[in-house]
Amino acid sequence: MSARDLAKKRVTVMLLGGIAGVAAGLAGIYGIGMVMRNPAVPQACQPAAQLAQKLQPLARGEVAALAPAKSPIQVTDLAFRDASGQDRKLADWNGKTVLLNLWATWCAPCKKEMPALDELQKKLGGTDFEVVAVNIDTRDPEKAKTWLKDNGITSLAYYADPTARIFQVLKEKGRAFGMPTTLLVDKNGCEVATLAGPAEWASGDAVKFIQTALGK
User: Fold this and answer.
1) Is residue 200 within 8 Å of residue 61, measured between CB atoms?
2) Which of 23, 26, 80, 106 is 20 to 30 A removed from 172 (C-alpha atoms)?
């Protein structure tokens, strides 16, 4: 091969390498853009994804185990009943931020955190926020009501799902791993953060987290 042919070959290799490098760079930039836009997140939940990022630094102290959602899901179809036995869905709370908590009388950590959830409702409950605690006892429906009354839980409205289907739905979505299970849900019915296990919900850390989520 002549010197001239070798030179041409080197130029060709350099050009191909340059093109490959540019392509890789573009792919990287495009990939970053895709992550930032997160097309897997429903359009209605894009604000929840942005809020979750904002809340990330506040998941500390008493709420350090709270996991801000990376790819929020919409949970408006979660179903349960109110104290009068009427069917309800989380969609009924659209326009309001909700702390959805699943609890049961057979779950010791659940019962331990109920007073704190009751206190959180006293502190922040109102037109823009509510703690929605859903009991999933599958047997005696009066047992949970009696326990709440006996333990002075008066600020939380009573909700229940005696089929425990709500827990199974969240488990299928990868959002329930044990009891208690708690989700912070925005006004569009989209997950903002999830916690597996109990927390001191009336603590300063928890209150600051919720207030920031409310834009306060």
Assistant:
1) no
2) 106
pLDDT tens sequence across 50-80: 999 999 999 999 999 999 999 999 999 999 9
Structure tokens that stand for 94 in this block: 């659209």
Beta carbons of 49 and 55 less than 8 angstroms apart: no
Rounded to an integer, what distance in angstroms lies between the CA atom of residue 214 and that of residue 155?
20
CB 181 within 8 A of CB 56: no
CA distances from 77 to 84, 89, 123, 169, 213 (A): 20, 6, 27, 10, 22
Packed helices 108-124 and 204-213: angle between N→C axes, nearest 10 degrees: 60
What tens digit of pLDDT does each residue of 40-54 get?
Answer: 788 999 999 999 999
The amino acid at 28: G
Question: What does the alpha-carbon distance between residue 74 and residue 131 come to, in Å, rounded to a whole number?
Answer: 18
Do residues 136 and 167 lie in contact, with contact meaning Cβ atoms separated by under 8 Å? yes
